[in-house]
Amino acid sequence: MEPKSFRLFLLTTTACFILIFTSTNFTHAPSSMTRIFDCTNSSFSHLCTTRNFLFNKHIRPIPKNNPKPNPKNHDHLSDTPKHPLDPLTLVEIQKVRSTLSSHALFASRAPHALHSVVLEEPDKNLVRQWEKGNALPPRKASVIARVFSDSHVLTVDLSTGHVDIVDSPVRVLGFPVMTVEEMSDATWAPFSNTKFNRTIISPGLNLTDVICFPISSGWYGNKEETSRLIKIQCYLTQGTANFYMQPIEGLTLLYDLDTKQILEVSDTGRAIPIPSPNNTDYRFASVPTLDKIRILNPISMEQPRGPSFVIEDNHLVKWANWEFHLKPDPRAGLIISRVRFHDPDTQETTKRKQRHTEGKNRRYPIREVRPKLTLVVRMVASVGNYDYIFDYEFETDGLMRPKVGLSGILMVKGTAYENKNQVKKDKEGNEEELYGTILSENVIGVIHDHYVTFYLDLDVDGLDNSFVKVNLKRQETKPGESPRKSYMKAVMNIAKTEKEGQIKLSLYDPSEFHVINSGKTTRVGNPTGYKIVPRATAASLLDHDDPPQKRGAFTNNQIWATPYNMSEQWGGGFFTYQSHGDDTLAVWSERDRDIENKDIVVWYTLGFHHIPCQEDFPIMPTVSSSFDLKPTNFFERNPILQASPYFERDLPVCGTESVSA
User: Fold this and answer.
1) Phi-psi region for residue 362, left (φ > 0), alpha (ψ -120 to 50) or beta?
2) C-alpha separations of 202 from 191, 195, 207, 500, 548 in Å
């Protein structure tokens, strides 16, 4: 029987892989990638050691039925794609570079850079029809390039070397993200500016104790209309490793990324002192002895028979009944595709159980536990001061849980106030607006939001799906019908067009949100489906005409449903940087296209409001939230029943004298 399957295509807006993968520039020869991935190199061997420790505490014999493991010293120059969605290999990237270096657009040797070089995914139907052993669809690379002050979108056919001009020059409002070289240039640019140097030196600071880095400038008016600009902020590094807690308040520089010139130096914070480095260093060795809690004993977990997951061809993951394709992406972070859950039993039905002990039935004693285990796919992105932790949890009952954790260091601003009792009040007793919380002397943690949008192309049991809002309603009983006055009932509303698929979550409108295939039903007639189960999230409070909200209009709703369109993959638009918000999910969805029994995409936005508090200083604990993708009549019964229980012989058993933590 063919496995029940759905394709899950997750896109998250992060910058980690942008910094790692998108710096391809013709003026610099590529570094030795073999050396980077060489575990025998002392500079990188700790990475290999860490990986081995995670998976195997001790070396164990490999069972014969396990695939041969990859060698430690993997030569990525020899990689070849094995799946239509495999990312570009190093050889393919080098071919893109050599092909474009002779193209007319770059032949003049004008200033240019490649901001993105990624796989252009084949047509969706070709991917669905492909089976292992078949020839791969034609491999193509999608390229975003800057030449002089213009952006260009190109496609390179890796087999023929043909270059297609997709959009050249790009006329939409917005720009591609920075390259690593541009970030480095912006970091050093202030120190070549006389006014900036004078501003630093005049109060007695040393230039060698100052560090600067670029932050997004956004778009707020005509000044940012046509130029590719970024703002630069600076910090003092003296006395602490945590320089983020020592902002030079009011000192901001406006920098042109194309001309590499400082356009403005704004110094409005001379009256605001630079915060002291005291208590800002979060390293354990720097914490006063009296502040350290009693050391807890470490906990070690291991699988005596080795890991249960298998990775085939570098990107295909198999675990329990799950199978999916995994690849890194410089913009999305991780993309999980072709998700399948193998269901060998479709003939029985029962209610969901995890574990049960039955004392009433003496004939059939029941004392057993089915393990509900979780496989976690994790990516951590360090984006400036913040760390974003992305977990994709796969569970043995068919549930998948995308989870986002926030940690790292707050972006703070300086203030003249050292204590809340110093804050000025007006005649009515209202305090001066601080835009945040005083965390330490002269330090304010600024109120802010975080939003991560997930692109969910589920394809539940096929392409033709529908989005269903299941409302939970109170139904009044008729007089004399029952001693009860009311009961709950579920009302299914199938969204026929996009606007009916726009959802603002509310506790006072309890609902479930299903993606169903009405053409595929269970043995008892229910349409197969998966449902989105929201957890804690947030909605933007900004005015819809506020420039940041125009660019981030995908946060106007928490859930959207749209017809599949290969050109609509980024909720904030293809060129988000300094955009005017005219190419966003909100704009596309206004067309109100049909979505009933169509190939649809569901978008879910996970949001966080952050009002900083002193526990966030000098470094934050992790805060996380998630949502579930849960099978709903997708199986004939609880799939976890297919897992055998653990028996006493499978695991170590503690004796009566053992002491546990």
Assistant:
1) alpha
2) 14, 10, 11, 61, 36
Q: Which amino acid is at 577?
A: Y
Q: What are phi and psi of 45, to 5 degrees?
A: -65, -25
Q: How far apart are CA 14 and CA 144, in angstroms?
A: 17
Residue with tokens 């055998």: 644
Please state which CATH number belongs to domain 449-610. Answer: 2.70.98.20
Distance CA 457, CA 172 (A): 26
Q: Which residue has the tokens 């897992």?
A: 643
* pLDDT tens-digit series, residues 600-612: 999 999 999 999 9
Contacts of 238 (CB under 8 A, 6+ apart): 206, 209, 246, 277
Angle at 564 between CA 563 and CA 565, to 5 degrees: 110
Task: Give CA separation, 34 vs 43, 184, 194, 540, 584, in Å.
Answer: 13, 24, 43, 45, 40
Is the omega angle on the peptide bond into residue 61 within 30 degrees of 0, that is, cis? Answer: no
Contact 566, 140 (CB under 8 A): no
Q: Report whether pLDDT(31) > 60.
A: no
Amino acid at 638: N
CA distances in angstroms from 332 to 296, 504, 571, listed in the order given: 37, 24, 11
Ramachandran sector of residue 435 (left: φ over 0; alpha: ψ -120 to 50; beta: rest): left
**Total-model pTM:** 0.85
> Of 58, 152, 138, which Cα lies nearest the Cα of 105?
152
Return the sign of the alpha-carbon dihedral for residues 430, 432, 437, 438. negative
The DSSP secondary-structure symbol of 176 reads: P
As given in the structure block, the two tokens for residue 503 are: 């959802």
Tokens of 394: 């796969």
CB atoms within 10 A of CB 363: 4
Question: What CA–CA distance (Å, rounded) separates 303 from 652?
Answer: 11
| Domain at 180-267, CATH class | alpha beta
Domains 180-267 and 449-610 share a fold: no
383 has which bridge partners? 386
pLDDT of residue 364: 65
Helix, strand, coil share of the chain (percent; to 5): 15, 35, 50
Domain boundaries, the chain: 90-167, 180-267, 449-610
CA distance to 81, 83, 208, 640, per residue, from 132 (Å) = 12, 8, 57, 28
- Continuous segment of H or E residues that includes residue 322: strand 322-329
Q: Encode pLDDT of 305-343 as tens digits.
A: 889 999 999 999 999 999 999 999 999 999 999 999 987
- Could you tell me if 223 and 264 are in contact, meaning their C-beta atoms sit under 8 angstroms apart? no
Please say if the pLDDT value at position 629 is more than 80: yes
Report the catalytic residues.
345, 386
DSSP state of 620: E
Query: Are 137 and 122 in contact, with CB atoms under 8 Å apart?
Result: yes
Identify residue 130 by its one-letter amino acid code. W
> Strand 150-157 and strand 4-5: pairing?
unpaired
Q: Give dist(CA 221, CA 217) in Å, integer.
A: 11
Which of 3.10.290.10, 3.20.20.70, 1.20.1050.10, 3.10.450.40 is the CATH number of 90-167? 3.10.450.40
